Amino acid sequence: MILLTIINCEMGKTNTFKDKREYNKFVENIPFYLEFVKKILAKTELSFDENEAVKVSLYINDNELSEDGLLSLIAYFGEAIRYRYGGEWFFTGKNDGFEPNEASIGNSEAVLLRTCPRNYIKKIQETGDIHLFNDDLKEDLKNKNEIKDLMLELFPKRRK
Q: pLDDT of 29-47, one tens digit each?
């Protein structure tokens, strides 16, 4: 288990991790955090499919999150992206202008540059939209494909 430090930044943002050491402990403990999600869903295995993500979103709306609960849901949404579309965990670091000291997913088929799973939790809490995670991923995938098509149109591959 990891001790979570939430830091308030000057711009009113919150950070999940104090430093890279805390982030590394989080990544090492992802299996533990996913066990928490299995318990709240009363499942023995996670599928990371759309229906399951909706149930996780319902949990977010219906419960106050503990520190371990928050980390478990960050782990769940990050692993759901990785399971569905590939990708890698990385730490944004303290100098990141958008999401300092966060666990993010990059190099994913569905994510334009990167995404911070904590933002899904925050948006679900703010809007109550239980389909937000799935809808955002579909929209990101659509946008990424449109950009890829446009780039191919603008810069066609030369044939030899």
A: 999 999 999 999 999 999 9
